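Appendix B, record 7
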Amino acid sequence: MITRFDNFFGGHVEMSDLGFQGIPIDNRIESDDHLATVIDEARAIAEVMDEAGYDTLWLAEHHFQREGYGCIPNLPMLAVYLSQVTRRLHFGSMFNTVPAWHPLRLAEDFALADLITKGRVRFGIGRGYIAREVETLGSPLDNDQANRDLFEEQVEIIFKAWNEPSFSHRGKYYDLPARIRHRGQELEEITLVPRPSNRPLECWQPIVSANPRGIDFMVKHGIKGVLPGGGRVDEVAAKWQEALAGAGRETLLGEDLALVLQVHLADTQAQAIREATVWYEEQLKVLSPLGMIPHLTEAQIQATFDPEKAPHAGLPTVHGPICDGAWICGPPEHVFEKISEIQDRLPGLERVIIGAGGLAIPPSIIRQDLAWFGKEVMPKFQE
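Structure tokens (predicted):
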């Protein structure tokens, strides 16, 4: 049964000239002052959520995005700030790009955030998906095997550092502690200072391809899954349940998962779809060149850079994810009905995240949707 509602804000700023006929993404360069407004946007969203009774605001880590689509490079730092201007709301990482960090620095920063916020942070981990970010910061991404190997070793180090009073690690990428003499003795172990107070710290990771290696790694380490909405939800949830059963855990379908849906409310479904069209087009422009929109030809991908060609290139429309169930657009009663259908299919599902990053959706609209959903949809799940 769904008991918690969250939002995922990817960290973008207000933008103009969106959609296929808007500014090509490579021509969009926002000023430093405008990029910095992401702090105020995140605060405004957090305040609406805190007042409405949401559980968690999830934020995305990104780097070097002068275009303005993702402007938060340090999630623990922003979470600490937001915790000081809210009362109850939690703050989650969706996701910390682990290969962009030294694992012990990430472990330290998040442990300190856990202590300062008195447990109001949620840890989320990902391997990254933008080469400009991950490769520039010194880690592999285009080599998927190397990226996965590095990521898994880093996560194991983070969990060791949090959960063991002192530890050592000898792996492929890290030799910890350094093989040195300290105060006249060989240094054999180190202790993370500080360690989080809420151990074991809850951890979340996206389930994108449902790769067996990835799912097995998550189950082994007690990591919970974040599942994007759409046509594969039931299939992936069943694979997840099967993996948990293989580890000796009998669960309800959907248990230990969070489902991400892009929700937009309006007085009518037609109005909601009309408003969402340009936002979806902008998302397509951003994600297509990264290989994140399946089944596109190279010609279609190139068309997303050209405002004259894009509208005539046969590109997907927002009707696709709406029919697939990844987007829900309409009045409150329609949104409630659609989420209720998911709840009936996944009886173990407890957490729904309304907002799949919100990429290009004006933050003012995000706040409006959150307030409306919190007033007219969320209470119906508490009756």
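Remarks on this record: The mean pLDDT is 96. The radius of gyration is 21 Å.
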